[in-house]
Request: fold
Amino acid sequence: MSSLRNLYYVRFGFAVAWAALLALTASKLGPISIALLVIYPLVDVAAAVIDFRSSGAVRPRGPLRLNIALSLLAAIGLAVAATDGIPSVLRVWGTWAITAGIVQLIVAIQRYRLGGQWPMILSGGISALAGTGFIVQAGGTKPSLTSLAGYATLGGIFFLISAIRLHRSASAELREPLVRR
Reply:
């Protein structure tokens, strides 16, 4: 559980830093913003691999493998979509947000007994809804990458809340044997 908690803390820090950098470069698709767009799902791949290897008995194998595949496809799709413009990027990102959100929801439900998973359940559901919003925004008059920064920030906050809840849950378990004596 401590490895999952630590992974959530790292995911929070990355998401907030990434969002700040994207917000600074979101006005157009340039080399930095494109690199940031591709890096985000690749970090998701790395996090899912770490989660898969370290979470032991609470490892939802199938959904984590699916998440790895979806995030790899998203990274490739975003690199290709960036050559076509912001609307294409938003469509790919939106599709990834929907599918990854559903997978995150499944993983969090399977880990519910661990504690600290309500933020991940909410995050998965919100991700699926936000993905739909990105696809709709792609067809609008002023599609923008700025909304992706907000999405990442909110996701990061959910990781932070879940990490804190896991930390408190672990602390309570450590105190419990002392109380029984």
Q: What stands out?
A: The chain has six helices and no strands. Residues 44 and 71 are 7 Å apart (CA to CA).
